[in-house]
Design a protein that fits this description.
With 375 residues, the protein is an alpha/beta fold. It is built from 14 helices and 17 strands. The model has no long low-confidence stretch (mean pLDDT 97). Its cofactor is pyridoxal 5'-phosphate.
Length: 375
């Protein structure tokens, strides 16, 4: 049996929460969705209710739509991410500009971003790689000083914080993912949060197919009346999945604690090996570790990957640099343009990381890695 690199943590209370919705009257667009959105907003420490959607990708698309990206606008982002961070902006007509990452965290480097900003920059989109928060204060200042806004792709980092400020309150708009391998799950799902009521309203309108049912107009025309006021898509998260999310929220603190314990155990077991670089943890950051991104510097990442897979460990690589993908090569992006991110990606291998991972399983992974490097 292969030990997966990521896995959902489901208990009987999760199953009962979903079953209760199945027994009720609302499978979608009901009160459980509202409750889940309140739960997400509370964790993100934002005043306005979150906008739940059907996936992390839908969250990104919804956020870019709320930011009113137009053809010709530029979005500066990282190549060390799942490609949806970039492609969802492209769906709104934006041009993607890749900036490099910081060598320690793998997060978007403010100094590299500063070199790429133009008068057409509309959004800086940082990604909380592996669960470590971006340098939001520096990136937000860069954005605002240049008439742009900061989007934080927090697919990896719900319940994280930086200098005591929760992820969700650090940027102008933030997106979450609730895929099964993430830090809590709705099976498939995501959410958008913002301290800006206008951005939240536009996000909610977009994910709701772009139509409105205003009480005053319904009073005037009849209870059936609605108006299509803008383009949108049906990205509505159903109550069935929202119920799972709200119940998972009850254990979010436990999930975070266990992920930190696993990270600490890996760090202790793999310390002092010259070939390896362990995940960085900057002062003031409280990561929600989604990944354990180990780096091996001797050029043997493929060999280590195969060694661990053969040993029953389902490791992964996060990620192939986005600008190396054929789509982006066709658009004129070139290999070698983000050397720090490319080196990081050549060295990285994600070790198993999920709350139900046992200490014995962590030790099994450590032993296999140490045996490979001869430590």
């Amino acid at each position: 049996m292969v030990l997966p690199y990521g896995k959902q943590s489901i208990d009987d209370s999760d199953i009962e929460a979903v079953a209760a919705v199945m027994r009720g009257d609302w499978l979608t667009t009901g009160p459980v969705v509202d409750a889940f959105e309140d739960d997400v907003a509370k964790v993100a420490a934002v005043e306005h209710r979150a906008v739940s959607v059907t996936s992390g990708t839908a969250a990104l698309h919804t956020a870019y739509a709320a930011l009113e990206l137009q053809p010709g606008d530029q979005v500066i982002t990282t190549p060390l991410t799942f490609f949806a961070t970039a492609t969802c902006a492209m769906w709104q007509g934006a041009e993607i500009v890749f900036a490099d990452v910081s060598a320690d965290t793998g997060n978007l480097d403010p100094e590299s971003v500063a070199q790429k900003i133009t008068e057409r920059t509309k959004v800086i989109a940082g990604v909380d790689y592996a669960g470590h928060p971006i340098d939001a204060p520096a990136l937000k200042k860069l954005a605002h000083d240049n008439g742009a806004l900061l989007l934080e792709d927090a697919a990896h980092s719900i319940a994280g914080s930086l200098n005591g400020v929760p992820v969700g309150s650090l940027a102008d708009i933030t997106t979450f993912s609730f895929f099964p391998t993430k830090n809590l799950t709705t099976a498939e799902g995501g959410a958008v949060v913002s301290p800006d009521a206008g951005l939240v309203d536009r996000a909610r309108l977009f994910k709701g197919i772009g139509y409105e049912r205003k009480p005053e107009l319904m009073d005037e025309h009849g209870g059936w009346y609605y108006e299509v006021t803008s383009m949108g898509l049906n990205y509505r998260l159903p109550d069935v999945l929202a119920a799972l999310g709200s119940n998972q929220m009850k254990r979010l603190g436990q999930f975070k604690t266990r992920r930190q314990e696993i990270t600490d155990r890996y760090n202790d077991g793999l310390a002092g090996i010259d070939e390896l670089i362990l995940p960085a943890h900057r002062e003031g950051a409280s990561p929600m570790w989604h990944l354990y991104p180990l780096r091996i510097q001797d050029g043997r990442r493929r060999e280590l990957f195969d060694h661990l897979r053969e040993g029953g460990i389902g490791v992964q690589v996060n990620y192939i640099p986005v600008h190396h993908q054929p789509l982006f090569q066709q658009l004129g992006h070139t290999k070698g343009s983000c050397p720090v991110a490319e080196t990081y990606a050549e060295q990285e291998i994600s070790l198993p990381m999920f709350p139900d991972l046992t200490d014995a399983q962590v030790d099994q992974v450590i032993d296999l890695v140490r045996g490979f490097v001869g430590a």
